[in-house]
Design brief:
The protein has helices at about 35-50, 65, 70-75, and strands spanning about 5, 10-15, 105-110, 125-130, 130-135, 145. By secondary structure, it is α+β, with helices and mostly antiparallel strands. The chain folds into 2 domains: about 5-50, no CATH class; about 65-145, Microbial ribonucleases (Nuclear Transport Factor 2, Chain: A). Strand 5 (about 130-135) and strand 6 (about 145) form a beta hairpin. The chain is elongated and about 80 Å long. The chain starts with a strand and ends with a strand.
């Protein structure tokens, strides 16, 4: 393995005496400036697209608080249920709107009470694997992923 050293400006230096290498005497690196530039461009591109630069999956910036879901999420976390037969039941994801999973019990659905409506209403929270959170304001037609 070759030991390398560089100064704060990225110029390679001889690790023995810290003198800068002449342009034609610098050791060859395992990667090139093109690689670094490509990596930087990829990171910028992901950031602009609102994606996680490592996974290229959408970043999740909205929170339960932003969506007004905190009280329902606190209820779920405390193990309390809403008086509805499907609260805490398996969500089957029949339309495959959410990412598909091999475990048929991966997703659970919970009622988020709809103001002004008697009973459960149309709002739902779906939790996948106890780590992915989705809010459906329209009874599973659309989903908004959120942080909790």
């Amino acid at each position: 393995m070759q030991e390398l050293s560089s100064d704060a400006w990225g110029q390679l230096r001889n690790p023995t005496n810290q003198t800068a290498y002449a342009p034609d005497a610098a050791p060859a690196l395992g990667f090139t400036t093109g690689f670094i530039n490509g990596l930087a461009n990829g990171l910028r591109s992901a950031y602009k697209a609102g994606e996680n630069p490592l996974t290229r999956k959408p970043k999740v910036d909205v929170t339960a608080d932003d969506l007004g879901l905190s009280s329902t999420m606190d209820r779920i976390k405390a193990g309390e249920s809403y008086p509805h037969r499907n609260d805490g039941a398996v969500f089957e994801n029949k339309e495959n709107i959410l990412p598909m999973q091999q475990d048929s019990e991966y997703y659970r659905e919970y009622v988020h009470p709809t103001p002004g409506i008697n009973g459960a209403g149309i709002q739902r929270i779906v939790i996948g694997g106890n780590k992915y959170y989705y809010y459906s304001p329209d009874h599973y037609k659309t989903f908004i992923r959120f942080k909790y």
